[in-house]
Amino acid sequence: MSEPSSWPLSQSGIRVTVAENVLTMLSSHPLTESCYTTAIGFYPQAKSHKMKRVDHDDYILIYCSEGKGSLSVKDNALAVKAGDLFILPPNTPHSYSSDEHKPWTVYWCHFQGRQAS
């Protein structure tokens, strides 16, 4: 499982990672093996939130509900604004960051499974 960012949580922020033994069960159980969450969170008004990954083994879904930020995938830089949702496939080098003046609020989820794609 790819590790979520270690950005310091605010009082209302949430970050939950699924324990390794539970992931093993989820990945082999008939009801969940096709798609299961490995980590999930909520970062409200996440000033100074940034992440850079060269390699990761799961899908990452990020929804920006307010504020803005930026996303770079390969050589493409994209602006992210409230209402935008993006999914990063496994093994896709990327970086993203919250805007310093109007920081984003994001909901995010890492997931895997046979049918995740």
Short characterization:
With 117 residues, this protein is mainly β. It contains 1 helix and 9 strands; from the N terminus they run βαββββββββ.
- Round the Cα radius of gyration to an integer and report it: 14 Å
Helical residues, percent: under 10%
Number of strands: 9
Give the strand order of the largest sheet, numbering strands 1, 2, ... along the chain.
Answer: 1-2-9-4-7
State the end-to-end distance: 16 Å
Mean pLDDT: 94
Which series of helices and strands comes N to C?
A: EHEEEEEEEE
* Global shape: globular
Helix run count = 1
Could you tell me the strand content as a percent range? over 45%
Biggest sheet architecture: 5 strands, antiparallel
Q: What are the segments in which pLDDT stays under 50 over at least 5 consecutive residues?
A: none
Q: Label the structural class.
A: mainly beta
Summarize the structure in words.
The protein is 8% helix and 45% strand. It is mainly β and 117 residues long. A five-stranded antiparallel β-sheet has the order 1-2-9-4-7. Strands 3-8-5-6 form a four-stranded antiparallel β-sheet, with no helix packed on it. A hairpin with a 2-residue loop joins strand 5 (68-73) and strand 6 (76-81).
Feature tags:
about 120 residues; mainly beta; five-stranded antiparallel β-sheet; four-stranded antiparallel β-sheet; globular
